[in-house]
Amino acid sequence: MTSFSLPKWFDAHMHARQEGLIAPIVKSQMDMGCYAILAMPNTKPPVSKVHESDGGDGWSIEKYRAMIRDAGFKGHLYTPLYLTKGTTVKMIEDGAKSGMLNTIKYYPPHGTTNADFGIPMADFMASDLPRAMADNGVILNIHGEEHGLCAEHYFDRKTNAEEIFYTETMPKLRDTHPNLKIVCEHITTKVACDFVQGGGDVTGATVTPQHLLYTVGTLIQGLKYHLFCLPVVKFDEDRDALRKAVTDPNNKRIFAGTDSAAHTVKATDCGCAAGCFTGYIAPQLYAQAFEEAGVDLSNAATQEVFKNFLCTNGPDYYGLERSNDSFTLTKQPQAVEKIGTSEGDITPLPLGLGLETIPWSIKL
Ligand code: DOR
Ligand code: ZN
Question: If you measure from the C-alpha of residue 57 to the centroid of ligand 2, how many angstroms do you get, rounded to a whole number?
Answer without folding.
Answer: 22
